[in-house]
Amino acid sequence: MRKTKMLFVLLALLVAAGGILSAQTFKNVTVIKNSFDDGKVGGWAHRGHPGSEEKLIIDTAVKKVGSASLKITNRTKTWHGPIHLLTDNAVAGDVYAFSGWIYYNQGPENQAFTFSVERSFKDPNEAHKYANILSFQAKKGEWTQIKGEYTVGADPTQKNIWVYFELPYKADDLVTDNDKIDFWVDEIEFIKLDPALKPKVQLDIPNLGDTLYDWFSIGTAVNPDEVDPSQQKAQLIMKHFNALVAGNAHKMDAIQPQEGKFEWRDADRIVEFGMLTGMRVRWHSLQWHQQAPAWLMQDPKDPNKRVSKDLLNQRLKTHIQTIVKRYKGQVESYDVVNEVLSDKGGFRTAAEGSLWYDILGKEFIFNSFKWAREADPYAQLVINDYNLESDKRKRQDMYNLVKEMLAAKVPVDAVGIQMHISNTAPSVAEIKETIDLFASLGVQVVITEMDMSIYASANDAKRTPTANDLLVQAQRYKDIFAVYKAAAEKGQLDLVMIWGPSDDTSWLNDFPVRGRTDAPLLFDTRFQAKPAFWAIVDPSKVKGLR
Ligand code: XIL
Fold first, then answer.
1. Is it the case that residue 368 has pLDDT exceeding 60?
2. Which is nearest to 316 in space by CA: 331, 295, 345, 342?
3. What is the domain range of residue 148?
4. Which atom of ligand 1 lies at the shortest distance from residue 386's CA?
5. What residues act catalytically?
6. pTM of this prediction?
7. Tens of pLDDT along 125-178?
8. 543 phi and psi, to 5 degrees?
9. 247 C-beta closer than 6 A to ligand 1
10. Of all protein residues, whose CA lies closest to atom 13 belonging to ligand 1?
């Protein structure tokens, strides 16, 4: 009797332990897996609407392994391709890893393919949203492996997620034969990663904001997805940063995709998060020649004609004042104009992708500042540009322009130095000279978009950052932050913005070379503090620093 009881207790214990164990062992779940060898397309469908000519076929003549692959043929749009439901219950922060192979044999020698997601919303009347997640370069006639991760964003209103493959988007009237090529996919697998594998913020390290408090605020650029407080990424941001700017969500195309239709949802999420967490909030950018909606430069009656000078002026004024009035008292600093200078001297023109100067002359710059000031007399108004540290002529052009603006009583308060730099250039001395030069005009300097590529140029091949890459980077962050501190002590600057919280979402993972991952920031892809972080916070923690 006693023995039986003991046995029972032991058994119960074992079952309980088994339960705990199995709850702790991570489980990755395969959600999509197709080799197409069974002759079936599985859950894949073509994206074209019913009646579209586009077709999916099982092809036994072309395959990566096994006996067949999935062919997409009769495509007529760049976005024609195979689509599959990933989940009908989007959970913020879930990470899906995918892998597969892609192939084509017509058209150009190299071809980019895009992995994208489509999302529906709990409100069935809400329009689906589409986002390009990753891009792959394939070679004609060769199977190319595709691999990546997709993290579900923190939008509580979303419902279904579909995954699909397509060619880089072009408007229908621009589609050429090269955009209509057949392509094949094979051995496709999507795995939902166990939540236990998700990155976790380190709680036991000092935070950047406090460490730098005596000198300047330290901010980061964010995506709307990154500011959901239930997410680790938001925890990272809240722990370390005390200033915020949108990486893309405040640009002209995001705010006013159609004339007069302002989209505030994503823009508000970022500003509200900043307000709730007591951060200083910047706006980037009221004007820019990139990421601007097409209608802006078009004649309303004939999109093939350029907008008139008067109308463009009016559109710019409306855009600026609608935003600045809305966020008065919340956004404390605006990039009013962005990248208006040429890399070849003088102002940026159509030759470098901007029609602003061609249509309006430099007056548009002066007017933009006046309109912004009218709408909020207290906000800091910034003229922002890149390579000011590395390009002496551009730096001098900026100096001359701001001097002219000040003389003409144009309300410019600060020069924004983007500071997209690399492990190799520019020198620390050049950075100091640049800050001193602008400060000598009596305006503030804001470091608006700092990051530091591990690559010397676009010619460097993709690599995982080496220990030496990270050490060189740490040394430069240390030296450059020393320059910032000295500048802060002289009253030249009080705000440094880093262009992203952690390496996983840096824009340099796709720029200037698509798909070439970089590591330019202070936290790595798993949100862990890099040597560059320690170089700023406690250099004694990094062996090898000078
Ligand atoms: C970048 C964003 O980070 C990317 O996500 C986007 O695809 C392109 O723009 N200078 C600027 C920023 O002023 O707006 C740019 O941001 C980086 C270069």
1. yes
2. 295
3. 29-197
4. 10
5. 339, 385, 449
6. 0.76
7. 999 999 999 899 999 999 999 988 898 988 889 999 999 999 999 999 999 999
8. -70, 135
9. yes
10. 338
